[in-house]
Amino acid sequence: MPVPTSRIRRSATLAGLPARAVGRAVSIQAKGVLGQDRAVLREQARTATADDTRATLGRLKGGALKLGQLLSTVDALFPSNPDDSWQHALGALQEDNPGLPFAEVRPVLEAELGPGWRTEFREFDEHPTAAASIGQVHRAVWSDGTDVAVKIQYPGVADAVAGDVRSLAVTLRLTSLVARGMAMPPLVAELRTRLGEELDYRTEADHQRAFAAAYDGDGHYYVPPVLAATRGVLVSHWMDGVGLAQVARDGTATERDNLGAAYQHFFLTSPARVGLLHTDPHPGNFRLLDDGRMGVLDFGSVLVMPGGLPPTFGGLIRAMTATDPAAVERRLREGGFVAPGQHIEVEKLIDYLSPFSEPSRHDEFTFTREWLKSEFGRVNDPRNPDFTVALQLTIPADQLFTHRLWLGLVGVLCGLGATVPVRAELEAHLPGFADPVV
Fold first, then answer.
1. Helix crossing, 201-214 with 253-274: angle to 10°?
2. Ramachandran sector of residue 294 (left: φ over 0; alpha: ψ -120 to 50; beta: rest)
3. Contacts of 377 (CB under 8 A, 6+ apart)
4. How far apart are CA 133 and CA 63, in angstroms?
5. pTM of the prediction?
6. At CA 43, angle to CA 42 and CA 44, rounded to 5?
7. Alpha-carbon span 249 to 113, nearest angstrom
8. pLDDT under 70: residue ranges of the chain
9. How far is CA 21 from CA 43, 54, 309, in A?
10. What is the DSSP letter of 335?
C-alpha cells in the first residue's frame, strides 16, 4: 500500500486512534455490567490500543512515524502491564515497521540511478530489511563485492511530511493560545527545515561521511562509509550488530552499562569532534557490534555545530542544580529561556525540571524506567500546583532539537537500565556546565 499523502486522509487516520480507544473503553463498561472481568477487559483493550497505534503510525510513515519513534525513547512513561504492550509496540516502531512492496519503490531506483540500476549491484534483495519514517533499507552487494545497505525513499513521502508539518503547525497555534509565552512560528519553521533536510539523502550522505571520517579507526565507535548517494537513494557499507533495544531486553548488566556510557559519551563529544550533532536518539539507530564498539546509523537529522554544543544548554542544566534562586534566574534569562518581562517562579521551576537535572547532581547515576515514570508522573500531574510552571519557559527555536535529544537520551538510558558516570562527563564535555552559577 502506498504511503498516504493526503493531509485530510492522514489527519483522519490519526484521529481514528483516540476514537477507537474511546470505543474500547465504552465496551469495557458495557461488558463489565454483564459480569465480565473488567481487569481482563482492560488488559485486552490496552494491548489492542498499543497494537493499533503501532500499526497506524507504521503505515502512515513520514512525520507520524517519526513522532512514534520519538515516543519510543520515553516508552517508560506509557502504561505498564505484565505483557509490556506499549513497550513492545513502541519498540517495534524502531526496527520492525512494514516496508512497501518492491514494485512501489523500484521506480525510485530507476529515476535516481537510471534504468540500468541493477548493474550497480552484484546482488539485490528485494525484501526490505528495515523500514523507517522516510524510506526503507534493502541489503545488497555492490559492484565491487562490498556488502551494502541501500536506503530508498518512499514515493510521495515528501508530500506526506509536508502535510504532517502543516497539521502540526495548526496544533501548535492552538497550543499557543494557552501557552502564550511559547514562540510557535519559529518552532514550526525549525521543524520544517530539519524535516526538509531529511528528505535529501545527499545532505544525509555528507553528514555520514563527516562522521565516518571523524571516527575512522576509532576503538569505541563505528560509522558505515558512504559509497553513493542521490536525492532519493543512499548506499553505504552494511553494518551487522545487535540493536540497542535488544540489548536493553537481553543484555547483561555490564553490556547495558557499557553501551549506555558509550551512547551518552557519543552525544556529548561528537559536536566538538565532528562539528555536527546527531539529533535522532531513538534506539533503532544504534548497534552493539561483535567487537564491542557502538555502531551509529541514520544521519538524516543532524545539526551543524562548528563550535560544538552551545554553552547555553549546559548552563541551563547546571543552573538547575544550584541552590541560589537568583543565580538560577540570571542563567535562565541570559540563555534566552525566559521572555523579557516574564515573571518566573524559580523554586518551582527547579523542581519541575528535575527529570533533566537530577542525574547531573551525581558522579554516577542509575537510570531506570521506574525513576523516569515517577519523575514525570509527579511533575505532569494536573493536580500538582506546579503543573503549569513550565509554561513560564521559552525554548529558543534553534535549541528545539537539542532539548529533544536530551529527553531522548534520558529516556533511552532509562530503557537500558544503565548505570553510567554523569557529572564528570558533563563537566568535561558539556560546554557551560562547569561554569559556576553566579
1. 100
2. beta
3. 77
4. 7
5. 0.76
6. 90
7. 40
8. 1-47, 49-97, 160-196, 323, 352, 355, 376-401, 437-438
9. 13, 13, 41
10. T
